[in-house]
Amino acid sequence: MQDSLSKLGHKGTPELGPSLLGGVSLPAAVLHEAALAHNLAWMQRFAESHGARLAPHGKTTMTPALFRRQLEAGAWGITLATAPQCRAAFASGVVRVLMANQLVGQANMAIIAELLEAGADFHCVVDSEDNARELGHFFAQRDLTLKVLIELGVAGGRTGCRSVESVKALARVVDAEPGLALAGMEGYEGVVHAEDPVPAIRDYATRLVEAARCLDDEGRFAVDLPIITASGSAWYDLIAEAFDTAELRRRFTPVIRPGCYVVHDHGIYRQAQQGVLSRRPDLHAGLRPALEVFAQVQSLPEPGLAIAALGKRDIGADQLPEPLRRYREAGAVDEVLSVEGWEITRLMDQHAFIHLPDSADDVRIGDVVAFGASHPCLTFDKWRRICRVDERLDVTEVMDTAF
Amino acid sequence: MQDSLSKLGHKGTPELGPSLLGGVSLPAAVLHEAALAHNLAWMQRFAESHGARLAPHGKTTMTPALFRRQLEAGAWGITLATAPQCRAAFASGVVRVLMANQLVGQANMAIIAELLEAGADFHCVVDSEDNARELGHFFAQRDLTLKVLIELGVAGGRTGCRSVESVKALARVVDAEPGLALAGMEGYEGVVHAEDPVPAIRDYATRLVEAARCLDDEGRFAVDLPIITASGSAWYDLIAEAFDTAELRRRFTPVIRPGCYVVHDHGIYRQAQQGVLSRRPDLHAGLRPALEVFAQVQSLPEPGLAIAALGKRDIGADQLPEPLRRYREAGAVDEVLSVEGWEITRLMDQHAFIHLPDSADDVRIGDVVAFGASHPCLTFDKWRRICRVDERLDVTEVMDTAF
Fold first, then answer.
1. Measured between alpha carbons, how far is B353 from B356 in angstroms, rounded to an integer?
2. Which Pfam families match (chains A, B) (predicted)?
3. B319 touches chain A (CB under 8 A)
């Protein structure tokens, strides 16, 4: 590896060229191109097959190179969660920015005002009359118009109006603010909790569509084809189906915004995807996990125990990571060694405790292990740079993150 | 706030000047100068009172400006956990670098070789003959000498030799490698688990001292006054006491290396510090929590529930964070509003669910809440920039992190 002091301060990810099995400082976060390309095409095709626009949630990766790949694959825009995230996305060339969140705080409003002045096509979400009035005042003072979507939530859920009545009341407040333009309805089905989630989420999607129709009937929208949007990464099929009518498309712009699909995972979203595929056998070959963290065995201090140089500083720990494959350092990429029976039992800041089965008698210090994790958002945010690799495990691109 | 597109891609922390109550994009990670200065002096005084050197664990903060403060306060060096961390510390002016971890992988060895060539005074840890031979080969080939400390672990623990016999055998291997110089003994008492931890940790510290004496008696050390080092942030008093003899100081350089003390916390280390103070009533006024995350109330969607713009992307979540104080946005810093009875019940990536008591009838969207967390390491690594503030909550320094 051509290491230079100029890269100081960043986790030791590499210049273009070296392989994960030699040359790259490990641990490193890794994206497999084949799975990535598959997922990009898969979700775009899924959205289009339902007549929906795709605005992938960018907070998952905060990786501008991935935003560009998503837009090149046909995405309509990128969804973000905070004003600084929107600023980072816009700076990397994303013009249509959907902030699926409330815009709160004068400093955050100032960031968005700057983006509007620079030409961003920006939307955010409102769920309160006080917030709407404050936003209206802020943007009107600057001769700007902020496009907002009213959020419909659920009782006991997260943000969002709790009733169609409060949606309608809020729409009247937005209408009266010259600094605001009501541009659609927003929801998030991920906070619907029920014994039997599928009918509950379908019911929520129906309520969302009805609320949007209701505002449209009242002439509250300030734009043609206002947005109707929902969906995280677990129930996007139910949302896309609820939006998939010719009548809805005549009146609205349906937008789904899963985020985790782009790299998928080895945990909660793998499980959620099994749910999607069981509901939708027509989709057969589903998403593939593209994100792994490569780390090395650091110590073999006693029988049955390996310590890997992998910790909470390197990989999401909502669930304990899963050892997937093993290679010898500087070995051949097709000589995959077994991790059968390996189990992470504890994760510290910089170390993983791995229980080894009796059969694991060939393990060496320095062995390179690929780990999978649940919930990719909390792996991405550990890294300033992500290695995209080909099937030879050669690094073909080093992607900066923008957290 | 003077926001500019040049800061794109970073969480919206501010230029110097604005206040957390107006001008700074929230959420933001915040260091309170008074508590920080207190902690820096407190731990330095503690180490000196026991005749020990202080090499604070830098992986906690990975904030070069804090490394400089620690060195200015009298620290002997900075401890790190990985080769890229050592590189970042050295680049920021830290010459004496103690990597309290094994050095594994050719790319990581290359980073350290580069630091040695650039003049770093570097030590790392070994616990295996295979690793020692590989390191010896690597550094001898480059005409470099790597100073290593042998690690003594505990059965069922993390890394480290499990017996004094294996320590002695490993010392013979190190001795035979021209690329290596045995420069001390290392341990970490944080992985000692026992019903009654205090005597178990004292016993471990005694074993560590005995192993060091044993190697010294055998003439295995290649340096004068070899290092003897242990201690995390919870039991440093027991380690310092075990190292605090005139005989030990005549033969060794005792080094303690707590990390979290510099900002302390509102969780596990607050609890651990109560343990220290109960064992050591002479220390009375102990460490103070210096790290908080400021975030705003984003939504008040139903009675008894506030949603704050604070998530796992912003604050450590080993334990749920704790609301500490509340201010009005653009309000006066001395008008502190109540958060009595406020409780975070759930933390998502970008949102905190806060249960409000009936008495919380004055809450407004936009209210600024200071949150405390457990385990500061996992708050620091969420941020590229940290705001150091004075007692007026004005930002007096923006500190870059180097994760």
1. 10
2. Ala_racemase_N, D-ser_dehydrat
3. no
